[in-house]
Design brief:
- The protein is mainly beta.
- It is built from no helices and nine strands.
- Strand 6 and strand 7 form a beta hairpin.
- The radius of gyration is 13 Å and the shape is globular.
- It starts with a strand and ends with a strand.
Amino acid sequence: MLTKSKRKNRKLKVTFAMPTIEGCQQLFLVGDFNEWRETATPMKQAENGVWSVTLELEPDREYQYRYLTDDRVWHNDWAADEYTRNPYGSHNSLILT
């Protein structure tokens, strides 16, 4: 799930959220905004099990991203704005700011 709100500094505040993933002890948000560094953006898990993290992104851009579990399983965000093929034979999630 994505939640977007505009900031006074023209940036877009985006909260990325992912429901509980069985067996996952840590979830990471990986994408264009962190140069696809796998552990650069750890997510926090709420008491209800939902993982989330909030970023400020530049407006009028398209960002590709995916979620990565601690056991190295990739997940898409099924609430993303769009999807695009990646060079690994699957798809990346897209957010349009």
